[in-house]
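We close this part of the discussion by returning to an individual protein. The amino acid sequence and the backbone structure tokens for this protein are reproduced below:
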Amino acid sequence: MPWKTSVKQQIFKHPLRFLWRILQRFQANQGLLLSGAVAYYTLLSIIPLFILLLIGLSHIVNEERVLTILTGYLELLVPGESGPLLEQIKIFLEHRQALSWFLMGVLLFFSSLAFSILESAISVIFVHRVMVRRRPFFISALLPYLFIVLLAGGLLVVTLIIGLLQAAENFPIILFGWEISLGGIAGSVLYWLGLLSEVLMVTAIYRLMPVGNLPLRHALIGGVTAVLLWEPTRHLLIWYFAHLSLVNVIYGSLGTTIIALLTLEIGSIILLLGAQVIAEYERIEEEMEDGPAGDYPSEPPV
């Protein structure tokens, strides 16, 4: 029997064909429409989510320190528009004495909307898994809140690390008679921790949200790919909205909201494209197992 070529070898041999398959399938899945829904619900969720995180973590660490960390993460998520969003969070926190359990429940509900709609979008992309196996309803209901807990835990760890580094900046290290200052290192560490957190969160989304047991290596490749695409994109968006965009001229006071929504939609497209890469890899793997030896399907089946 002829030797079967691996999927990786075939993809590296025909990268453009693989890219074309991804774009075809993404269009067939109405990826832009799904991305718009994810972006809209993320915009609705982002302020309640960060309010909950800030209220929860302020009982453990200094509130100002948590605000500084949140500002860095908002800048990674909505580049150039973190200021107005943070102002809204601060205004709410000034009146948190009136926060009731009912309002806490409302905040928790709205903060989970983005994760819920994202799970639905990912299930469309991984429909080949959904057709084979289905996830129990209670697990789907709990997934958004699991991700909120993961976010809170990760943010707490990052806050503690940055706090330790800021404290260490005031105490130079003596190594082999040389004095080493750590001044300014906290800002750089915050940026790289932010990137690492992005990779881990996107990897967790790819690992947990599709139905079934997605291999960790596939999820990690998707997470790294999505973040590598997002980083230059967000810098380009900052430059574009600062120098070329007429959004503020056309929409006036709504400009900040429009820019945030457009930014989140582009980020959602990248996130769902990363999921589509993983899904298409799995489909090709299945098709090659069922087809002739070494056969690489050039087009996704209709």
